[in-house]
Structures are given as C-alpha cells and as structure tokens.
TrEMBL record:
CDD domains: F-box_AtSKIP3-like (cd22162). This is F-box domain-containing protein. It comes from the Eukaryota. Signal peptide: none annotated. The lineage of its organism: Eukaryota, Viridiplantae, Streptophyta, Embryophyta, Tracheophyta. Residues 1-47 form the F-box domain. It comes from Vicia faba (Broad bean).
C-alpha cells in the first residue's frame, strides 16, 4: 500500500469509491490517509448513489436525513433501520455490505379483494414500522396485489418478494394452498404454493425475521440494468380456508441479503 500513500487523498477517495462499503471500512485501517479518504463524502456518495433521483426522493420525504454531518453516517443510518416514506405507506432501507436497496409496501399500500369487507380490520401494533397494519380475520376468499417499479430497485440484482405477517389465531378448515405470483410486464412469471396452517406457517415455507415478524417467500425476479417495468406481486387464497393473520406488508429485497 506504500505506493498509494504518495497519491493525493482525493485520488485515493476516488479509487475507493469503486470498491464496496465493506472494502472501504477495511482499508480505512491501513493508515490515517486511507482512513480520511475512506470516510470522505466522495466515497459514501457513490455508495449511496446520491446522484440518482431516488435518493433525492427519499431525503425529500424524510427531511431529517439531510441533517447528517457526513454521508457515511447517513449510509449507516439507512442500513440500520428502515425509513418510512409516503406518509408511512412504504419503507426504504439499504443492505449494509453493498448498498443495495430494499423496499417494503405497507398493507395500506396494497390492493385487497375479499369475499366480505368485514374480514379486514385496520389497526396498529407497537412493533410495526408502519402506523397501520391489516388484521385479516377468518378469511375464506382473498386476493392481495402490490406493485413496485424497477427504477426504485438496484440494477443488475436478483430480488425476492416476501409476505410479512404475524400469525394471530390460525384455524384451517381444510389443508389448502395459498398461491403467490410474482410477474413483470415483459413476461417473466414465478408462481409458488404454500400452506398456511399450524404445521407449516412457521415451518419450511415461513421464517422468523429479525424484527419478530414472520415472512414467506413469494417469488424471485431479476432487475436488469436500465429497465423501467412494474413488478406485480399477488397472493391468491380462493380455495376455502379460514385463517387469521396480521399483515404488515410485502417486502422486496436482494435475494442474497
């Protein structure tokens, strides 16, 4: 590394901006010069992709984000906790190791079609990132639809969609599958069937998240560079089950995160 020490700090920072957040943090231990360069706004602006309309949009809807003294501090904040947007109907977060984007659509941002309107109750839970969640009670016939545009997501990345929920009092009359479909306009289509009963809801098809909620994978899609398409995410339950859940929303995040 000695040959790099003779370079101007701005030049070192420019080089480090083409690495990854993990690499920049490791290289900051090499010397004081590297630490100063690795902590510079030049490097973390690149990791934040501050020159994109999305970051302007995020900061506009969360004005407190503009108060951070350094871009590195802003990056770490966006990794450590979700930031709610659009009157708390969406949340945004970064994956710490690579800066890739995650979004969650709240239940209030989803479209529901059910057999009886009384099957849903809007309420709040203290451990939810959103102000309202949907309490689905004794649902027999239900369809849930959500969508997000690919321009919100990181390019050249495999993404997965997850249904985020809590099991309240699941009572299944018959062992029937719930169908999940993730599709894009260009024709890619993934369909998965899961079973929501006491045996399976916390088993192989669902898992406990770090925030205490459950999630079940709905499907995968690849976000190619320079695409502008809507991702459609659907849940179909039309085969005669009775189940009750608290639905927080649908999260879209890089598959390897």
């Amino acid at each position: 590394m000695a040959e790099f020490e003779v370079l101007p700090e701005a030049c070192i920072a420019s080089i480090l901006s083409y690495t990854t957040p993990i690499d920049a943090c490791r290289l900051s231990l090499v010397s004081k010069t590297f630490r100063s360069a690795a902590d510079s706004d030049t490097v973390w602006n690149k990791f934040l992709q501050s020159d994109t309309p999305l970051m302007d949009h995020v900061i506009k809807h969360s004005p407190t984000l503009a108060n951070f003294c350094t871009k590195k501090a802003l990056y770490m904040f966006l990794c450590d906790r979700p930031t709610t947007l659009h009157h708390r109907h969406k949340s945004f977060q970064l994956v710490k190791k690579n800066g890739k984007r995650c979004f969650m659509l709240s239940a209030t941002f989803l479209n529901f079609l059910w057999s009886y309107p009384t099957e849903v109750e809007w309420t709040s839970l203290p451990d939810s990132r959103f102000s309202e969640i949907a309490q689905l009670r004794n649902v027999c016939t239900l369809q849930i639809h959500g969508e997000i545009n690919t321009t919100y997501l990181s390019p050249n990345t495999w993404y997965a969609a997850y249904l985020v929920f809590k099991k309240a009092d699941v009572w299944v009359v018959e062992h029937k599958p719930v169908e999940f479909v993730v599709s894009i306009r260009s024709g890619h289509h993934v369909s998965m069937d899961h079973y929501f009963d006491d045996q399976y809801v916390e088993g192989q098809c669902s898992r406990v998240r770090g925030d205490g909620w459950l999630e079940t994978e709905m499907g995968l899609f690849y976000n190619a560079p320079k695409t502008d398409e809507d991702i459609h995410m659907n849940v179909y339950q039309i085969k005669g089950c009775n189940w009750t859940i608290s639905l927080e929303g649908i999260e879209v995040r890089p598959y390897d995160s």
